[in-house]
């Protein structure tokens, strides 16, 4: 009887301990059973999301209202093109100065220029006289070697031992030939033949209300339209 009583007591104690353990408030909750595949899990109403749409939050606008457009400025009137004239030729600087004084009130800008004329005899290009004939001949050999074959060594007279390098009908051609010789290392010069004289011109930019006939009477000389590039 003692063994049976011991077994009964042991079973009762085990049941009591299991009951006490299940009734504890801090006992971990029993794991939720997973629903079989394909079957939705039951949800309480409090667990479902609220189906009502929420109003979107209105962000405070940071944009500043656009300022009203101001009327555009009146376009500037296009400036009238310049008109330029040349008066002359004047024989001397006295006549030039008198014309300048008469035309100054009619012009916004004035410029004088001088043109030299040689009386129609042409121009020459030459090398100045050397110390002796041997030096002149050596210069002539160097000129021919450089390709300048049109030359004459002057043997006597006031220009003995100089080298003539050609005559030209215009100043422009003479100076171009002299420039080519200078570039090759020769001290060539261009010079007008015969008496030279100067002629003077007065170039001007017309002012407001400029009258060409009135300008001609004031200058005592012809007044012709010209390119404004010559007056700059």
From TrEMBL:
Residues 48-79 are annotated as: Disordered. Pfam families: SPOR. Residues 117-197 form the SPOR domain. SUPFAM superfamilies: Sporulation related repeat (SSF110997). Residues 55-79 have a biased composition (Low complexity). This is SPOR domain-containing protein. It comes from Lysobacter brunescens.
């Amino acid at each position: 009887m003692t063994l049976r009583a011991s077994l009964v007591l042991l079973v009762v104690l085990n049941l009591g301990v299991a009951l006490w353990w299940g009734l504890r408030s801090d006992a971990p909750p029993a794991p939720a059973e997973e629903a079989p595949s394909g079957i939705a899990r039951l949800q309480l109403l409090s667990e479902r999301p609220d189906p009502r749409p929420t109003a979107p939050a209105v962000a405070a606008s940071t944009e500043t209202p656009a300022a009203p457009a101001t009327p555009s400025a009146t376009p500037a009137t296009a400036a009238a093109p310049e008109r330029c004239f040349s008066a002359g030729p004047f024989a001397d600087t006295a006549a030039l100065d008198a014309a300048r004084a008469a035309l100054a009130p009619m012009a916004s800008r004035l410029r004088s220029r001088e043109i030299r004329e040689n009386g129609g005899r042409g121009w020459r290009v030459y090398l100045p006289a050397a110390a002796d004939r041997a030096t002149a001949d050596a210069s002539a050999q160097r000129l021919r070697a450089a390709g300048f074959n049109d030359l004459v060594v002057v043997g006597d007279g006031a220009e003995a031992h100089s080298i003539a390098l050609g005559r030209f009908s215009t100043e422009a051609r003479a100076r171009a030939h002299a420039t080519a010789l200078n570039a090759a290392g020769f001290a060539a010069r261009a010079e007008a033949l015969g008496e030279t004289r100067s002629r003077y011109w007065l170039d001007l930019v017309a002012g407001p209300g400029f009258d060409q006939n009135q300008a001609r009477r004031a200058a005592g000389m012809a007044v012709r339209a010209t390119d404004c590039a010559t007056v700059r």
